[in-house]
Amino acid sequence: MNPPDENAWDAWSPHELDQRLQGAIVPWYVAGGWALDIWHGKQTRAHEDLDFVALRHDTDHLRNILCQLDFFTVRDGVIEYLPPSAPVPSDVWQLWGGDMQRGVWRVDLMIEQGTPDLWVYKRNPTIKMARSDAVRVS
């Protein structure tokens, strides 16, 4: 399956993602520019994409809930289709969810290496803190 153009973003809002993930039994959170706007309590600028984060062992659950999207691995500048039944490869840290009927990307799922209680910085795993201190709930 061929992916949409890498610039073909028509991302959901955090509210739309939250509505679609109502059945999730695993934690996830919004990251990036939208997370800053949520913290500010208002949208401060236009957003091209929607980054959200989940623990590696929770990604299949979220992919199942978002089954209307096709997911693609994003690694080293290469975008490749990931069949729904295929596990996320251990060297992949990012999945883009594509709405193939419209030919656009809806979400950017970042895969975190921490645990339910421990947040670990993806670029330097020696930087860690309690998840309750790193991730705010709103």
- Strand composition percent: 25-35%
Largest sheet: 6 strands, mixed
Rounded to an integer in angstroms, the radius of gyration calculated over CA atoms is 15 Å
Distance between the termini: 37 Å
Number of helices: 4
CATH topology: Beta Polymerase, domain 2
Shape label: globular
Mean pLDDT: 94
User: What's the structural domain tally?
Assistant: 1
What is the CATH architecture descriptor?
2-Layer Sandwich
**Topology as a string of helices (H) and strands (E):** HEHEHEEEEEEH
Q: How helix-rich are the residues, as a percent range?
A: 10-25%
Description:
This protein is α+β, with helices and mostly antiparallel strands and 138 residues long. It has one domain: 2-Layer Sandwich (Beta Polymerase, domain 2). The chain is built from four helices and eight strands. The protein has a six-stranded mixed β-sheet with strand order 1-2-6-5-3-4. A hairpin with a 2-residue loop joins β3 and β4. The longest helix is centred in the N-terminal third of the chain and has 9 residues. The radius of gyration is 15 Å and the shape is globular. The model has no long low-confidence stretch (mean pLDDT 94). This is Aminoglycoside adenylyltransferase. InterPro entries: Aminoglyc_AdlTrfase. It holds the Pfam family Aminoglyc_resit.
